[in-house]
Amino acid sequence: MNADVVFPQNATVPMERRIFVNRHLHMANISAIGFDMDYTIARYRRQAVERLAYDITINKLIQRGYPEEIRKIPYDPHFVIRGLIVDKQLGNIIKLDRHREVCRGFHGSTKLKTNDIRNHYFKKKTLWEATRFTRVDTLFSLPEVCLYAKLIDYSDAHAEFKKSYSDLFEDTRSCIDEAHADDSLKSIVSSNLETYLERDLQLPETLHRLRCAGKKLFLLTNSLLPYTEKVMTYLLNSFHAEYPSWRDYFDIVMVGAQKPSFFSHLEPFVEIDDNNQNLGNIVRVLERGHLYQGGNFTDLEATLGIHGEQILYVGDHIYGDILRTKKAGFWRTALVVEELEDDIRHTLTHAPVLSELETLAKERRYLATLAGWQTEEANQQIPGSSAQIHTQIAAEETRQQVKRLDEQMHRLGEVIDRTYNNRWGMIFKDKGHTTRFGEQVSNFACVYTGRVSNFGFYDPQHEYWTPPDLMPHEQDIRGW
Ligand SMILES: [Mg+2]
User: Fold this and answer.
1) Over the stretch 314-358, which tens digit does the pLDDT of each residue have?
2) Looking at the predicted structure, is the pLDDT value of residue 157 above 60?
């Protein structure tokens, strides 16, 4: 066995490999664990695969009549992050806080000024209709949003290029959907697995441990069998003597599952053979060693004889894997947020800067309050008296101190933002406040972590405890 596979026993789990808990989860009560494949069990080499998706989409746009010139537009892997919202009507990409207020945004690749944000999104209540706004929910969406922003720039600079911002988005989306549907993307990935996939040597051991603890494991992926077979073979075959094939790790294998409708419709399971041929059996009871396509969660639960909160589903898609799972069947959920590892590393590296920022914020709150009291005091003093003039000068000095602190905090904020993402800062936070994406993760994922093999660091019956919720008044009491 490879040394990398060994998990440290009784050692502290490295911070970036931990499992974080929103809702208490006792694994002893979990009898079955399901896994999504893409970006969950399968970790992609992101820059390579995103670049590929970007290039294929550009090719398809040119085939549809877009100017050849767009081929020169370079891909920027750091242009967007997960959790953003695309405003198709205005050609903007925006980041929302948990109150659904816009914290920052870009029109194409030009930063929106505070006044623009106010005019577009604060003058009247924004209705977040799907016809106008699209969520950047998955890592799959990043290249298309990057390309969309670049096409906005191109369109703004070329008056003869007559496409509405909405059309630009729909064309881009349609081309990338086509790249997925006609296999042009996956055929290249599956022929060059080493280039596009990252092999996690701790993954086979993690699955083995869960099985040894009596958990039933199932694979539930939207990818079809030919692609699933290649990816899973690359990731899991021949690592463990007890599991010559990847299929041996799983009690039930379901491909082409069509999530999220898997959780809301009653499509039957269709049995397929090793060659992806439909065997013509519409089945309600699933068997180990067989392959199924389509299906629904009700029949899956009936087959397992395991229901609701006894099932943990691990996926990367906040909507298709996590939110719908919760709404449909009350399964427990684990969200894989690949970006978390880098996020945590950055936070640890910049802990002194973050701490300095917190200290400055406290000082600013104190001085702003003091300036208010000084002004109030001056208003109550005899007009024109030396006492009043003295207090007014003191109030003005305090206000200037607040201003200097604002500038200092702004500079530090920019340093911190650049550490995570130059344009967007952190995924879960914006200037200390939780983003809409962070809020969704808190609300819908029972636990979240950077990769599936992080479960290997914990006892398979581990009890994951949530930290106590603290309301603002409780934080005040504790002096935070
Ligand atoms: Mg996925």
Assistant:
1) 999 988 888 877 777 689 999 999 999 999 999 999 889 889 988
2) yes
List the chain domain ranges. Answer: 20-43+195-338, 46-193, 342-426
CA pair distance 24, 21, nearest whole angstrom: 7
How remote is the CA of residue 356 from the centroid of ligand 1, in Å?
A: 38
Beta-carbon contacts of 60 under 8 Å, excluding residues fewer than 6 positions away, are 175, 178, 179
Q: Please indicate whether residue 97 is annotated as part of the active site.
A: no
**DSSP label at residue 97:** B
124 CA from centroid of ligand 1 (Å):
36
Where do we find the tokens 């996690």?
200
Asked if 173 and 130 count as a contact pair (C-beta separation under 8 A), the reply is no
Q: What is the pLDDT of residue 6?
A: 61
In this prediction, residue 1 has a pLDDT band, given cuts at 50, 70 and 90, of very low
- pTM, to two decimals: 0.90
Quick count: other Cβ atoms within 10 Å of Cβ 197? 20
Check: CB of residue 33 under 8 Å from CB of residue 207: no
In CATH, what is the architecture of 20-43+195-338?
3-Layer(aba) Sandwich (3.40)
- Which listed residue (38, 171, 200, 316) is catalytic? 38
Contact 374, 322 (CB under 8 A): no
Catalytic annotation present for 38: yes
| Torsion on CA atoms 455, 438, 365, 355, rounded to nearest 10 | 30
Alpha carbon distance 221, 321 (integer Å): 10
Q: Are 318 and 335 in contact (CB under 8 A)?
A: yes
Name the 3-class secondary structure at 431. coil
The phi and psi torsions of 135 (rounded to 5 degrees) equal -85, 145
Q: Are 192 and 230 in contact (CB under 8 A)?
A: no
Query: What average pLDDT does this structure show over 373-382?
Result: 95
pLDDT of residue 61: 96
Are 290 and 256 in contact, with CB atoms under 8 Å apart?
no
DSSP state of 241: T
Name 293's bridge partners.
255, 270
Q: How many CA atoms lie within 13 A of 173 on its CB side?
A: 11
* pLDDT for position 480: 61
Listed in sequence order, the residues at least 6 apart from 173 whose beta carbon sits closer than 8 Å to its beta carbon are 134, 144
Q: How far is the CA of 410 from the centre of ligand 1 (A)?
A: 37
**Distance (Å, whole) CA 165 – CA 95:** 18
